[in-house]
Write a structure and sequence with these properties.
- By secondary structure, the chain is of the alpha/beta class.
- Helix content is 31%, strand content 17%.
- It has 11 helices and 14 strands.
- It has helices spanning 57-69, 88-96, 113-123, 137-144, 150-165, 183-193, 219-229, 294-298, 303-315, 321-325, 338-341; strands at 3-4, 7-8, 20-24, 74-78, 103-108, 127-131, 169-174, 196-201, 232-235, 245-249, 255-259, 272-275, 280-282, 291-292.
- The strands form 2 sheets. The protein has a 12-stranded mixed sheet. Strands 1-2 form a two-stranded antiparallel ribbon.
- It is globular and about 55 Å long.
- The model has no long low-confidence stretch (mean pLDDT 93).
- The protein binds S-adenosylmethionine (SAM) and iron/sulfur cluster (2 copies).
Length: 343
């Protein structure tokens, strides 16, 4: 049994600890990225969660406190678009007070960062990751399916740097024939601006994004394109369970990463759980169901009850979808959507 500060650490059926928790604060978003929330599905009649169903900030704090006692050290706020949740800095302030949480981060599409970067920083947020798939206005609009110029996101990134969040991580989902011709330009932009760009393989999450293997640009291809332009050196993982493979530019201009979840699965090191906005705990991105923690919270459950519930769920965890997927891509029926549990 693994131990930390004298306390036993919960491990799952494959010996993995519960190190990271992604907390979705809303299933709503102001973008309709084609690979995540295609407008044909997430249109005007889509049944988003009623606001009254969402976990309150107090409830989220309780879950995070208990998870921290079980070994969680990294917490990431996500969604949907987390900055659509009213008063998010208040939640950040609550979570920043939990001593055991060493890294409190946020993933956002960047559209509201100009408004929020300063208050998030003041509330105690450690890091910001911004998703940005193209520097070209037409491609950006086509991918995110939103009537907003890409300059708004770029200004959001600048605002995050000004607020003290630099270097900002920038997530790029690469899709064949959509933005694969921009990989080197995006890498050059990251180098020039001091941002850490991470290229993500298009994943078969959920069941609505029409995923096909033919649309996946393998990480090796992305690295070859970048490596032909600048010399790269492998950077060892900063922490165990890191999903990105990191490279340093040999000339000292920062780093770049790839997340090869399709072609090089990393389930063996997956220490991550996801909490939906209504309080279901998912132990895999490709799960078909979550475990209801809100029921425990709202049945006046004590922290000990919550502790027992989370520990029990994690103990039984045996997920390794990406490893099993190899060779038999699924179509995704019944699987939870990325916008629901947070990427
Ligand atoms: N709305 C925020 C954003 O876009 O940053 C946070 C939530 S979003 C679901 C989190 C991350 O998941 C984003 O970086 C997004 O690009 C990524 N993502 C969504 N669908 C994906 C897919 N099918 N394959 C790979 N990454 C995906
Ligand atoms: Fe919204 Fe993020 Fe999904 Fe795009 S990737 S639709 S910004 S939740
Ligand atoms: Fe973790 Fe599931 Fe992804 Fe494997 S497929 S890395 S277990 S979330």
């Amino acid at each position: 049994m693994l131990r930390m500060q004298g306390l036993p650490l919960t491990t799952d059926a494959r010996g993995r600890v519960l190190r990271d928790l992604r907390v979705s604060v809303t299933d709503r978003c102001n973008f309709r990225c084609t690979y995540c929330m295609p407008r044909e599905v997430f249109g005007p009649g889509f049944p988003f969660l009623p606001r009254t169903e969402l976990l309150t900030f107090e409830e989220i704090e309780r879950v995070v406190r208990v998870a921290a006692r079980l070994g969680t050290r990294k917490v990431r706020l996500t969604g949907g678009e987390p900055l659509l949740r009213q008063d998010l800095p208040d939640l950040v302030e609550r979570l920043a007070r939990i001593e055991a949480v060493e890294d409190l981060a946020l993933t956002t599409n960047g559209s509201l960062l100009r408004r929020d970067a300063r208050s998030l920083r003041a509330a105690g947020l450690d890091r910001v990751t911004v998703s940005l798939d193209s520097l070209d206005d037409a491609t950006f609009r086509a991918v995110s399916d939103v009537d907003l110029p890409v300059s708004v996101v770029l200004e959001g990134i600048d605002a995050a740097v000004d607020a003290g969040f630099g270097p900002v991580k920038v997530n790029v989902v690469v899709k064949r024939g959509v933005n694969d011709d921009e990989v080197v330009d995006l890498a050059a932009w990251g180098r020039a601006g001091g941002h850490t760009v991470r290229f993500i393989e298009f994943m078969d999450v959920g069941g609505t994004n029409g995923w096909r293997m033919a649309d996946v640009v393998p990480a090796t291809e992305i690295l070859t394109a970048i490596g032909e332009r600048w010399e790269l050196e492998v950077e060892p993982p900063a922490v165990a369970g890191e999903v990105a493979t990191r490279y340093r530019y040999a000339d000292g201009a920062g780093e770049v990463g790839v997340i090869a979840s399709v072609t090089q699965p990393f389930c063996g090191a997956c220490t991550r759980a996801r909490l939906s906005a209504v309080g279901e705990l998912y132990t895999c991105l490709f799960a078909t169901r979550g475990h209801d923690l809100r029921a425990v919270l709202r049945a006046d459950g004590s922290d000990a009850d919550l502790h027992a519930a989370i520990a029990g769920i994690w103990d039984a965890r045996d997920d390794r979808y990406s490893e099993l997927r190899a060779g038999r891509p699924a179509t995704g029926t019944g699987r939870v959507e990325m916008s629901y549990i947070g990427g």
